[in-house]
Every structure is written in structure tokens, then in C-alpha cells.
Amino acid sequence: QVQLVESGGGLVQPGGSLRLACAASGIDLTTYHAGWFRQSPGQKREFVARIYSDDSTYVIEGVKGRFTISRDNAANTVFLQMNDLKPNDTALYYCTARLLSPPAEYWGQGTQVTVSS
Predict the structure, then answer these.
(1) Phi, psi angles (nearest 5°) of residue 31
(2) Residue 35 and residue 100: Cα distance in Å, rounded?
(3) Were both Cys, which of 9, 22, 46, 90 would link to 111 (CB 3.0–4.6 Å)?
(4) What is the average pLDDT across 84-93?
């Protein structure tokens, strides 16, 4: 059974940092494209960042320079380091793992990030 379990969310003041973790079981994350999405109340789920199976990474323009995605292969875990957090970063953050062939996609349950003074 495949599971993605996120952790590391919480309440932080503007300008603060959080490190989200996504621990995978049942799959080898090094063979997947792993990523993070987020969803604020009343908003569509938004793509944030991805780390590909070749270890290349991509983050959206709105978080570039503040967020970094990385992977610990030994721990089968993907991280999202978030610095200089802003109130509009407040959202439920989801981890995802995608395989192109054969097609497969898995999602975690999400971890809440709240940025507020």
C-alpha cells in the first residue's frame, strides 16, 4: 500500500520559516516526480514545486528564492524548505508523487501552514 505522509506544518509569523516533509512508503520516490501543491480556502489547488526523478527541480515564480524542494533518497522523503513566509502562503500543503510510465499518481493528506502575526 502506498502512503505519502506530510509533516512540518504549523503557525508561523510573517518572515518565518518552515520545513515540510513528505515520507513515502510503498514506492521508491527516486523513480517518481515528487512535488508539492497547496490549496487555500475557496481557491483551486495550486502547484508549488517539483523534483524530478533526475533530481532537477522547479518552483513557481511566486515562491522562487524563498522555497526549495529537495529529496533524501535514503529516507525516501521529499522536503519543502519555506523561508520568508508571507500571509498569502497560508494553505493546506499536499505532497504528490507521479510516475509517467506506467501512469500512477499518489497524494498525501496535507499539512496546514498558517502565516500570521
Answers:
(1) -95, 0
(2) 14
(3) 9
(4) 97
Cell of 20: 515540510
Position 59 scores a pLDDT of 98
Q: How confident is the model at residue 91 (pLDDT cuts 50, 70, 90)?
A: very high
Between CA 19 and CA 8 the distance in angstroms is: 6
Which is it for the CA torsion 82, 68, 27, 32, positive or negative?
A: positive
- Amino acid sitting at position 53: S
Pairing of strands 57-59, 46-51: antiparallel
Other CB atoms within 10 A of residue 71 CB: 21
Q: Show the beta-strand stretches assigned E in the chain.
A: 3-7, 10-12, 18-25, 33-39, 46-51, 57-59, 67-72, 77-82, 91-99, 104-107, 111-115
Q: How far is CA 73 from the centre of its chain?
A: 16
Please list, in sequence order, all residues whose beta carbon lies within 8 angstroms of the beta carbon of residue 17, skipping any fewer than 6 positions away: 81, 82, 83, 84, 85
Please report, rounded to a whole number, the percentage of residues in the chain having pLDDT higher than 70.
Answer: 100
